[in-house]
Design a protein that fits this description.
The complex is a heterodimer.
Chain A: H1 6-62, H2 68-105, E1 114-121, E2 130-133, E3 146-148, E4 154-161, E5 166-170, E6 177-182, E7 187-195, E8 198-204, E9 214-216, E10 224-232, E11 239-246, E12 255-259
Antiparallel strand pairs in A: 1-2, 1-12, 2-5, 3-4, 3-12, 4-5, 6-7, 6-9, 7-8, 8-11, 9-10, 10-11
Chain B: H1 2-16, H2 19-32, H3 38-50, H4 63-82
Helix pairs in contact in B: 1-2, 1-3, 3-4
The chains are: A alpha+beta, B mainly alpha.
């Protein structure tokens, strides 16, 4: 009696066809999306803008359901925070005017011009530390431009531009290395992005660093990049790990400035 | 029908929700459905919208799409043996 072994062979043929299909899909779509990325970003941008507006509307509605005592307590906390931040602002303005005076004596003028943009998408919606902003090549944005917070600290650079949108790569992206200066001793350091607005620095044990120390950019502007949040050193290690946090919460970023 | 519904749900999650929601949500239909090639297309959308050109040792330009393709291929023989 003959035995038919075809069903097993049929499974093998199906499996090889599926592998071929996957490879074909990946190659064709890879080529397609390499050229169609600007079109997709343009189509999706209105959805992102609407989503942001909807989220802010929902926050306003939720306010109606809060108790009076909770609102009073939040009001008092916010007044205290505003008072302390007003004081910090006065101090930083004094420092800024001193440094601008020094720069002008040296023949360098600090430029405060830039292109303002709102953030369409930010972490954690993006899996990497990437921002999509609503300013692109039509607004004068070019690849490589620095991106700052409205208050001045640098947070990243433009890596890709579309006609009315741009993609910003934050310095805190995982694996991203950024040259910086530890303000305490003006020590050159390399910030290694850890994602989620965090950095890590490796320093020799002997270098003095405290929680709260500022990390600034190495250029003449000395813009604030981050603040030391913790120091981790084992007794037997020659180096210590310094954990640095970004100055702004990336998860609630709304506006940025692109330095021209 | 279920595949189409899953694809639409995943697409909405990718557009409106954080990464820690839509990435595991995309893995679920890839694991449940037989040869869920739609997941590769959705992963391409993730890379195009939210990604950047990631340069690793093998220079992955679409890391999520390539990871989704590898996952679909890896699950094919496993699902065949489970039947």
């Amino acid at each position: 009696m003959k035995t038919n072994f075809r069903p097993r062979n049929r499974d093998g043929v199906t499996y090889r066809k599926r592998i071929g299909t996957v490879f074909a899909v990946v190659i064709v779509l890879g080529l397609f999306f390499s050229f169609a990325d600007s079109l997709i970003i343009r189509i999706v941008s209105p959805l992102w803008s609407g989503e942001g507006a909807l989220a802010r509307g929902m926050e306003n509605i939720s306010g109606y359901f809060r108790t009076k005592n909770a609102l009073i307590e939040e009001n008092q906390n916010l007044r205290t925070r505003v008072a302390s931040q007003d004081l910090a602002l006065v101090q930083s303005r004094t420092n800024t005017s001193s440094s601008e005076e020094i720069l002008s004596h040296l023949g360098r003028v600090a430029s405060s011009s830039g292109i303002a943009a709102s953030v369409l998408v930010h972490p954690p919606e993006t899996p990497y530390d990437i921002l999509i902003i609503d300013a692109g090549s039509s607004e004068g944005v070019t690849v490589g431009q620095k991106v700052l917070l409205p208050e001045g600290p640098e947070i990243g650079k433009v890596v890709e531009t579309f006609s009315h949108q741009s993609r910003v790569h934050l310095f805190s992206s995982s694996g991203e290395q950024t040259a910086a200066i530890l303000e305490r001793n003006m020590t050159p350091v390399t910030l290694i992005g850890q994602g989620g607005g965090s950095f890590e620095i490796e320093l020799p044990r002997d270098v003095a660093v405290e929680v709260g120390d500022k990390i600034i950019s190495p250029d003449i502007r000395s813009a604030l990049i981050g603040v030391v949040g913790g120091v981790d050193a084992a007794p037997t290690d020659s180096f210590k790990k310094v954990l640095v946090g970004s100055v702004e919460n990336m998860y609630s970023l709304r506006f940025v400035l692109i330095s021209s | 029908m279920n595949r189409a519904v899953s694809t639409v749900v995943c697409a909405v999650l990718i557009l409106a929700f954080p990464a820690w929601i839509y990435i595991p949500a995309l893995c679920i239909p890839i694991a449940l459905f037989d040869f869920y090639w739609e997941g590769i297309i959705l992963a391409f959308f993730i890379d195009v919208m939210y990604g950047t050109r990631v340069h690793t040792g093998i220079s992955l330009y679409f890391p999520f799409a390539e990871s989704a393709a590898v996952l679909v291929l890896l699950l094919l023989p496993i699902k065949r043996r489970l039947r």
